[in-house]
Fold:
Amino acid sequence: MKALQFSVNTARFVAAKAVAALLGDRVFYSGPLRTIRLTEIPEPDLPAPDWVKVQTIYCGFCGSDLNLIRLHDSPTASPFTSFPCVMGHEIVGKIVEMGADNSEFKTGDLVAINPVLGCDARGISPPCPSCRVGRTGSCENVAEGGLPPGMFTGVNSRVNGGFAPFLVAHKSQVFKVPQGLSSEAAVMTEPLSVALQAVFDNMPLPEEHILVIGGGVIGSLVIQSLRALEKICHISLIEPSAFASSLATEMGAEEVIPLEKVFRQTSCITGAKVYKPLLGMEISMGGFHRIYDTVGNAQTLNLSLRLLKAMGTLSVIGIGGDVKLDLTPLWLKLQTVKGVYSYGIVTFREEERHVFDVALQLMRDGEIEAEKLVTHRFRLEEYRNMIEVNKNKDKYRAVKTVVSFLE
Structure:
C-alpha cells in the first residue's frame, strides 16, 4: 500500500537544515534531502489479539506534522520516536479486522483513534504511574515493551500512522464514533481532545479574564471548549491573521487584541496597571487570570508571562523548540506554567470520562462545531500541495487540512 513515510538520521538532519537555510524549506519535501516520501509498504497485520485493523477514511494534517517534516522539533524527543515511520495521528476510519480479544467492537464500526502508545499497547504490566491514572500521553515506557520507541501512532516504525489506507490500533486506542456524527467531524476528535484537555487542566472560574494566543485550529477549539463547558468568562484573542481572527470570534472570542496595542488593551479589559522597564518589554501588574498559548515560541511565552496576573496560570499548548525566557514575571507574580500534551481521564458533568468520549459527545450534540474548521481535502498523492497550503494558510483561507481516502 502507498504511505507517506518520514525518515531522518543525524547526517541528513544536519545537511537538510544547512541547505534549507540557503534554498528554503522545500528541500524537506522535494529533492534528495527530503524527509518524507510516498512509498510502498506492506499492509499491516494484527500484532496481538487485542488489536484491530482500521481502514483510514480521513487523517488530519497537524502543525506538529509540519514541524516534524521541516525538522523544527527539538532533538530532545528523538529517543521516543523511531524511523522510518508513516505519519498521521488525527485519524477516523472503519474497523475491517479484529483480534479475538475485542468484544466491545465489531467489524464496520466507525472509530476515532487515540494515537497514544502507552503501557497497554506495549504489553507492559503493571502500568507506569501516568498510565495508571489515565494520562497515557505521559507514559514513562514509550521506548520500552513490545513496540519500538514512539510516543504515538505516526512516530513509531512498527505502528504506521493515518497517511496510509490501513493501520492497526490497540483496543485502548479505539473510540466508537456515536451514531449521527459524520466522519468529517470525527476526524477532529484528536485536536479537539487536545484543546479540551488543556481547558480541563486549567479550568477557569466564573467571570475570569482569559487570553488565547493563536487563532488557528487549536486556538479556535480552546475557545469553543471554554464555551461548551459552560464557563462564564471573558475570552480575548491575539491572532494577526484577519481570516483566523474572524473565525475565532465566530467561535466565541469577545475581541481580538492587536499585538501593537496588547498592553493598552489588556489594561482596558482587565484593569491591569502597565509599567515600562528601563529596557525591554512592558510588564503588567494584574492582567489575565489564565492564558492558553497555542504558539509556544519565545515571543509568545515572554509576552504571556508579562500579561498574566499574579498567581495566574499559563498553559503552553504550542510545541516549539528551544526558547529564551525572562523569568522575572514568573517569580515576581508567583505564576504557574503548565505543559499541555495529549489527553486522559477527566471529570465531565460529575462523571469520569476519557476526554475522547467527551469530545465525541460534544460534537454529536452540536455544542462544538469542529467540522467547520475542515476547509481542505487532499488525496495522499497531493501531499506536497497540502504542505504548501499549510505553510500559507492565510493565503488559501485554510484551517484544518485532511487527507481523504474516499473514492
The chain has 14 helices and 20 strands. The domain at 2-176+369-404 is CATH 3.90.180.10 (Quinone Oxidoreductase; Chain A, domain 1).
